Hints:
Layout: E1 2-6, H1 16-30, E2 34-41, E3 53-64, E4 67-73, H2 77-88, E5 92-96, H3 103-110, E6 115-119, H4 127-131, H5 133-139, E7 144-149, H6 152-158, E8 167-168, E9 194-198, H7 207-218, E10 225-229, H8 235-241, E11 250-254, H9 261-266, E12 270-273, H10 283-290, E13 295-298, H11 301-304, E14 313-316, H12 321-333, H13 335-353, H14 355-375
Parallel strand pairs: 1-2, 1-5, 2-3, 5-6, 6-7, 7-8, 9-10, 9-12, 10-11, 12-13, 13-14
Antiparallel strand pairs: 3-4
Amino acid sequence: xxxxxxxxxxxxxxxxxxxxxxxxxxxxxxxxxxxxxxxxxxxxxxxxxxxxxxxxxxxxxxxxxxxxxxxxxxxxxxxxxxxxxxxxxxxxxxxxxxxxxxxxxxxxxxxxxxxxxxxxxxxxxxxxxxxxxxxxxxxxxxxxxxxxxxxxxxxxxxxxxxxxxxxxxxxxxxxxxxxxxxxxxxxxxxxxxxxxxxxxxxxxxxxxxxxxxxxxxxxxxxxxxxxxxxxxxxxxxxxxxxxxxxxxxxxxxxxxxxxxxxxxxxxxxxxxxxxxxxxxxxxxxxxxxxxxxxxxxxxxxxxxxxxxxxxxxxxxxxxxxxxxxxxxxxxxxxxxxxxxxxxxxxxxxxxxxxxxxxxxxxxxxxxxxxxxxxxx
Length: 376
């Protein structure tokens, strides 16, 4: 099949959707399909991610939903999209977050190929969707031949506003790339117990909760250290959040390379993900599981389907630094528990989230969309 995959977020921008798009395209190409990624010009590092990628418009990053989101803008978006569709003659078009402005809506309205839509967002409600519900549902959602939500949380949010039917297909993880046998980073190998956070420095990711929890934990775990992997405009704010006496034990790595990220997981004893909410899945959870690492994470709707509390990790009260500190201490004190949770997580990653199994189902949805399109 000739497949177009359209997303406003893609590398060099880091994040779960970018990883989803890249991994999907890679697995599809392994199977002999022609997969072309359509995304924005980010004007920083685009050339490193150019194989099989077409870039139109330009990125505009805005604060939204407790994070910084990417919106593709440009006066010629519709014309540029039509040019690409004509150039590649797609059998199917896979659009991520179809009702989002601007590029996904433009592409959906202009596409001639059958469309599969994947929906990633979760939040309690949306005033914008409520206001635009009827035109979006009629003109955008009704053009989708298949609607996929990455979790029950995402489905529950979007089904409030848009008609179904809905399929559930989770994000995946590369279980070869993220593996318990990976070598740790040299500067972290053989050191003290390491707690790892991976994620953007967005407010909703709860970096302040993690830093507060580590401050509370530090006295009871005097040899533990915290490694923070991720960047964003708030990174300097969070660095100042750390008490002066603890700064030697907290390492902010900013963004790390695609190649090094699995080695940071390999360097960790525990992973910590204290998001406030509005997470539909949490691809970092799947990465930690594939790496065989136990987790402490917020007890939020998007994480509960991934974490089996007490088996592959511990759920802590959302925004409760004291509870996070308690749960981290439990794992720091029990090496056997960490090992058992890591093994359980690795098994779940292999059986639930490996990309080949995810793409098996996705190929079926593509064929379903093509068939429905032909039948009118």
